[in-house]
């Protein structure tokens, strides 16, 4: 509820920012949306663990991550279609207003649905592990954090995953600028490359969840994903300067 509330509030703040002299307002709204994401990104894993059995939990988690990635994909696809590169700032402002009002309205509907319909947990635990967890619910947050930061495996996983996700978001954020350096007037190409990257990632996410539910080979699956991420990054980096946009589409999908 906090995540949905912050996202909706930040979206409505951005509605007031569709003007060249209102960048600070846009930044405040976007910062609130970004802070709210902290409450949302961790939901899929928790929700999957609480609502699904041991042979469904990885698939359920991957579907939750899939939804987050779908939002990013839509963010790549739709804004270049709504906000055109007009010569007139007034026309750009009008396009931004249409986009901001659409997002604000949609996030408000989601907030209302979450308040009315979202439940914390099912009446009965879906697995023995969840039943035991409910019986001895640990509310000591500081103790929980201490146990995590002294667990070498957890720290390595957190750092490696953080680097991987950080690189992905950096590429996503700067994709438009990077593509335009090599392909002038390629705003829509940048959006489509980002969309393709995320769609490929969504497919990989769901397939990984299915593989994990079937095999429970977590370390091997993680290693394979990290190796492919590295190879995809190298391929993407070296094909940008070829001048062939089709190749960049292909390596963007591989990276995703």
TrEMBL record:
The chain crosses the membrane at residues 60-78, 98-118, 154-172, 192-212, 224-250. GO terms for cellular component: membrane. PROSITE patterns: MFS. It is a multi-pass membrane protein. GO terms for molecular function: heme binding; heme transmembrane transporter activity. The keyword Transmembrane applies. InterPro entries: FLVCR1-2_SLC49-like (IPR049680), MFS (IPR011701), MFS_dom (IPR020846), MFS_trans_sf (IPR036259). It is found in: Membrane. Residues 1-256 form the Major facilitator superfamily (MFS) profile domain. The keyword Transmembrane applies. Pfam families: MFS_1 (PF07690). Keywords: Membrane, Transmembrane, Transmembrane helix. GO terms for biological process: heme export. It comes from the Eukaryota. PANTHER family: GH15861P, MAJOR FACILITATOR SUPERFAMILY PROTEIN-RELATED. This is Major facilitator superfamily (MFS) profile domain-containing protein. The lineage of its organism: Eukaryota, Metazoa, Ecdysozoa, Arthropoda, Hexapoda.
